Recover the amino acids of this structure.
């Protein structure tokens, strides 16, 4: 137990040393502030670390993660991150990145009770219900989960577009929304076709007069 915890502190010392070795000013520059171009909304899964899978550095991506990368319009945490990223940091891109083999997606596909998370997974069950006609044609469980992973990303990007935060930004400047799926078994990201960066792609009831 003790040893496994020490590994993180030792790893940090190594990280700090290596960064300073390649650029003595590395941390000094980072301490001046952040101006990331991207907001990443991803899954909490330990196998999908935003910086590592995109080969980016500290300071490049503002990150929000939760189980199965869900965008819930009553989630104060998500809304606070989104507003800060869009209006203060002025990120140019917001990425929702799901991943194949997602435990949250798989759990939402069965009828077991897992606990508090069942309320969270309800959001994904609602995506399933919306696309049940398509999903019920797929008999293989893994394939069904993979497709639900994609549809979930598509719907979560739509949820972003429905927020006043994104719609207000669209009135002022370009803000690009992206839907990606990361393959844990390939290490590769696939881009999905998601809502474009204009309010006209939203059903009228979701459009605000801004
Ligand atoms: Co996941």
């Amino acid at each position: 137990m003790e040893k496994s915890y020490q590994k993180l502190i030792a790893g940090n010392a190594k990280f700090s040393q290596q960064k300073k070795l390649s650029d003595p000013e590395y941390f000094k520059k980072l301490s001046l502030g952040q101006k990331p171009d991207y907001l990443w909304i991803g899954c909490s899964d330990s196998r999908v670390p935003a910086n590592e899978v995109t080969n980016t550095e500290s300071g490049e991506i503002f990150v929000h993660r939760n189980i199965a990368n869900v965008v819930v319009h009553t989630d104060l945490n998500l809304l606070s991150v989104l507003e800060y990223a869009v209006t203060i940091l002025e990120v140019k891109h917001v990425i929702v990145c799901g991943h194949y083999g997602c435990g949250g997606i798989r759990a939402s596909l069965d009828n077991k009770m897992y606990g508090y998370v069942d309320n969270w997974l309800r959001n994904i069950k609602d995506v399933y219900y919306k696309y049940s006609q398509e999903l019920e044609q797929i008999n293989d469980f893994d394939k069904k989960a993979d497709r639900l992973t994609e549809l979930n990303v598509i719907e979560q990007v739509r949820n972003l577009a429905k927020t006043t935060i994104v719609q207000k930004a669209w009135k002022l400047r370009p803000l690009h929304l992206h839907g990606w799926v990361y393959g844990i078994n390939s290490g590769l990201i696939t881009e999905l076709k998601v809502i474009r960066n204009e309010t006209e792609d939203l059903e009228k009831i979701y459009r605000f007069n801004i």
Remarks:
- The chain has nine helices and five strands.
- Strands lie at 38-43, 61-66, 93-99, 176-182, 189-192.
